[in-house]
Amino acid sequence: MSAPATSIKGRAFGDRVLLALVILLSIVMIAPVLWVIGLSLKENAELMADPNSVFHAPYTLKNYLNTIGTSSVFLWVGNSIIVSGGLTIGTLVLSSLAGYGFARLNFPGRNVLFVIVLFGLAVPEQAVLVARHQIFSILKFHNTYHGLILPGLSASFGVFLMTQYFKAIPKELDEAAMLDNASRFRIFWKVLLPLTVPAQATLGIFTFLGAWNDYLWPLISATKKDMYTLTVGMASTQTNFAQSEGIGFLMAQAVFAGAPILIVYLFFQKYIVTAVSGAAVR
Amino acid sequence: MTAEIEIRNVSKHFGAMAVLEDLSLSIKAREFIVFLGPSGCGKSTLLRMIAGLETVDSGEIAINNERIDHLPPGKRGIAMVFQSYALYPHMSVRDNMAFGLENIGMSREVIDARINEAARILEMAHLLERKPGQLSGGQRQRVAIGRAIVKEPKAFLFDEPLSNLDAALRTRTRIELAQLHQRLQSTMIFVTHDQVEAMTLADRIVVMNNRRIEQIGSPMEIYERPATKFVAGFVGAPAMNFVEATVDRSAGNATVRFADGMSVRTEIASSQLTGGKHSFGIRSEDVRIVPVGQGNTDGVVDVLERLGERTLIYARLGDGQQIVGSDVGNSRVAVGHKVGLAFDGQKSHLFNETGRAWHAREA
Question: Which residue of B53, B90, B100 is in closest CB contact with A175?
Answer without folding.
Answer: B53
